[in-house]
Structures are given as C-alpha cells and as structure tokens.
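Working notes for the structural subgroup meeting. M.R. asked for a predicted model of this chain before we commit to crystallization trials. I am recording the input and output together here so anyone reviewing the notebook later can reproduce the run.

Input as submitted:
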Amino acid sequence: MNTTQTKALLLVAALLAAFILMFEFRDSGADPAAAEIPRLFRNLRPADVTAVEFTRTNLSLRAARSNGMWSLSAPIRYPAHAIPIEGLLDVCARIKPQALIPAAQVKSAAEFGLATPQAVFKFRAGGTTHELRVGNRSPVGNQVYVQAGGDTGVAALDAALLEILPRSPDDWRDRRLLSLGPGAFDRLRLRSGTRDLVFERDATNGLWRITSPPPAKRADTPLVTQLLRDLQEWAVQAFVTDDPKADLEPFGLATPQAELAFSRGTNDVLGVQFGLGPTNAPDLLFARRLAHTNIVLVPRPLLDKLRAPYWEWCDAHMVDSLAPTSFDTLEVTGPDGFLAQRQTNHSWRILSPTNLAADTEAIESLLARLASLEAISLAKEVVTDFKVFGLDPPQRRVALLRSTTNAAGTPANALVAAVDFGLNEMEGAARTDRVFARRHDENFVYTVRMQDLERTPLELWKVRDRQVWDFTTAQVARLEVTFQGRERKLQRVSAQQWKADGEALDPNISAAIEETAHRLGTLRVDSWFARGTQQLIARGFAAKAYKVNVILLVNGQERLQSLAFGPMTPKGPLAAVTLDGQPVLFIFPTTLYAGFIQRYLVVPE
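Returned structure, recorded in token form:
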C-alpha cells in the first residue's frame, strides 16, 4: 500500500526528470534571441554545494552534505533524501529563463510577487551563497517569476518549477527505514516474542552464520545478502510522529512485537522496533527507529519474511562450493562403490575395484548433482548416536579427496568434503522418500530426497566407460545368433567373406555382415539402464531371448562376447551384456539394430 506521501515523492522524482528534459528540449530549439539569455546560475556545480535552505509559508528546511550524505538539520534532525535536493540543484544549474525583464523595466518587485516571495531556495557552494526567490505565476499561468540573489531583474521560468518545490519536511526526508553502508555491521539480530534469531558474518571468508538459536549453523549467504538488500530498500510509507514523548501504547510499541538490531563487534549501530498496524491497513505496521525515536509506517511483508522458520535461512547444501582444482579423487563407498581419479587430460579413470576408463560425463554429472544437493530438513541438531540414522557406519559415503604426500613422503589422499547417507526416515511404520544424511564437517543430521540420490550415478556400473566392446573385425572368428531356440552360425572366412552354417554367402551379404561386426566392435551406448539378473527378469528378457554371441580369436585363444536383446522401449530396444560378472542393461542404438542386426543377424525359420 502506497500512501499519499510516497506517491508524492515518486511524483517529485518524475517531475524533476521531466522538467530537466523539457528545459533541454526547449533550449535546443530556441531562437537566437532567446539563446542570448544567460543561465540564472552560470557557474553553479551541484556537486560543490554543501548546504541548502528552503523557506516558504509555514515551512523552513535546512540540510547539509557531509561525506556524500545529506542530512536535515531543520525543522528536525534526520537523514535527508538526496534525489529531491540534488534534483532541485541540478535544475538551478541548468535552467535558462524563457524571458528576462531587465531591472530598469521592473517598477516594483511586488507586482511579480517577489517583494515577499512565496518561496526562497538558498544553497552554498565554495564559500558563496546563492539564492533563488520564487514569486507569482504569470497572468496566463504557464510561467512563474523568479529572481536570482543580487539581481533586481525578473526572470520567467516554466511554472513546472513549482511542482518540484518541497511542501513539507517529509519531501526531503530519507524514506529508507534502514540506511547502512555495506561494511557498517557484521551482526543482525531479530527478536520476536520468544524467538531470537542472530546472523553473524565471518570476518575471514565473508560468509554468514546463524549463531542463535544454538548450535551455530551455516546461513544461506546469498539469501541473507538479498535480505540485506531488501532491508536497505524498506521504504517508509508515512511519517506518523516525531514527538519523542509520544505515547507508544496505541502503536503497539510500548512492548514491541519485534525488534531488529544491527551491530559491529560489540558496538550497536542501529535498532528498529516494530509494533502493531493500523486497523484499516493490515499490510502496514508501525515502526520506531531508535536513533531518531520517530514513529513511521512501513510495509509488513518484509518483517513477516524475517519471521520465517530459521531453517529457511540455513544453507542447505550438503557440499560447499568447490573449485575443480581443490580435489582430484572421488571415492564412493557402499554397494558397487568405486574409486576414481581425474587424469591430466581432465578425463576420469576408475582405479578400484578394477582399473578401467570411466565415463567422464557421468562422473561430472555426479559431481554436479553432489554440488547442488540440498537438504530438505534438519532432522536433528544434537546427535548422540548416529547408528539409529544408519550413519555409523553410513549406508553410502561420497568423498572428494586431494592427492597429496604425508609427512613420511608417502602418497595419501586428503579429505576435502564428504557426505554420508543413511536409512530412510520413517513416519510411524511407513518408510518415506527422505534419506538421512550428514556432512563430514558437521554433527547435524539432515534429510535429503531419495529421488535426488536415485538420479545421481553412485554405482560403478553407472560411471564406467560407455564403450561396450572394443575389438577389430579381424579378431572376429564367428557370430552365433540365437532366436526363440533356433541357432545360426556365421563364420568369417576372410575379409569380406562369410559363411552361414557352412555355406558361402552372397558377397553383398558378406560385406553387410562384415560392417555389422565392425560396428559391434565399437559399440557405445548413450547411458546405462539397469544392472542385475533380477532386472533381466523384470524387464522381460526371456530365457530364449534374441542373443548374439561374438567369438573372438585373440592370441590363438577363443574369447566370448555375448549380447542379449529384450523388449522394445520408446527409445529403442533393451539390450544386455555381462560386465564384471553381472548383466548390465542399456538402450541399444536404434540405427544399428534396425539397419544391421535385424537385417543380417537373423535365424531363418
């Protein structure tokens, strides 16, 4: 809700801009005679002005600038709003009269309303005081008569000038409830009823922490930073009273509903108390800035935001933001765990439990998901037994390590960050989709979403290289195809020459089978789908499934590579190969399947 005063302030800012633009537009198109009229204050530089004074009937304002900040000294001491003051100074510096009546033609200042001006604006710059006296409107009403101090001539300006002159002290007041520089405080405290919420900024890393309620927790620094920006823009909607002896009870400030305090170290910087709101404006509330004791009206939503549960202000990330160079090793313990290390070419390699190339894209996806993993709740702050959460030992652990050398000169891995995952949280006898988790550097127990873990490749089979096979066509001795219990053997005689069950094949068919064998030798999948014998059964792989066995001849020894096909999916046919003793399922490339496998590796009825 905007009050009349707030709307008036916005109107003044708009009028200032419009008045300056209007003046410059008219000046650029003025005739030569008008162009000879000098500016009223030719040598004025607004930046040099250190003090201003404005008087009109029943109103007297004084303000001074120090260290770039304006402050009112009369009729009250209060921070001043720079825009209307500097805007008026800017107008004075730019303005050129539309008409000029020489002193010789001015019979009486009274006929222009300048004997007793309706307003006088004084400003001091470089030891000199300048003065602008404002008189009556012209007979037509579109101009206003003015005089510059020391000049007995009369100038006519656009009457829009009258709209940007202050009408009350509030027009020049700073309407920010809080006016603090970025380094003015390092502690923010909100007290509301029994609640005591305290944010403190670490002097070393600049991060915010929640120190109350205890124990201390990481705060969401970007969120707190945005909160501080919002607080700086918390605008006063109306100035209610400046009487330091005002009765606070009607405003709900005798016993404040809430209090906001800023401090630096042990020194208090600024405090604001909040009371009730007007009965006819539920979205506003009364506030009292203790440095000035005046009572104002401000919007309620920002205080309501501050009163949110403290967990909403906590940093929910399970891993701090890390530079890629801060670690080079990834260790996942638990079912089908692995140890992987970043190589000098930025690829990743599995070092344990077997040594093989890793799917760098999958590893990077794991790291990205780990970096973005956020807790959804703080399950317990003070924990005496992690076993009940399945965290001692954990069901699974993901650790980021940095290769180093210990004091004895032996290679070692230094822990950079780690997250432990435990059991699912229970609701009565029901198992939820929330999993207990713990950071390596904290003793809190959080919960994370099960689906976030399921989307993260935390098993070896999910991060191994997606290259299924790697052999040359020359290494292929034969292909054995099985379909619904029927078999067919395709034997490679030589390059581009194949036999089917002992009979030579057409050269074109032989060339196609040769190409099929070549493509199988470089088979690569988009992603792994599932793993385990139970998955074969669940996914519809029949005992007499469509199978292709590739028999290789390597160093005089036969070696079997087996491929089984299952049902079709929207993305292509399911297929399975055996890796490390376990069947692993994947989506077979559709082009290879439709263009070669189904056409040339078939079993006639």
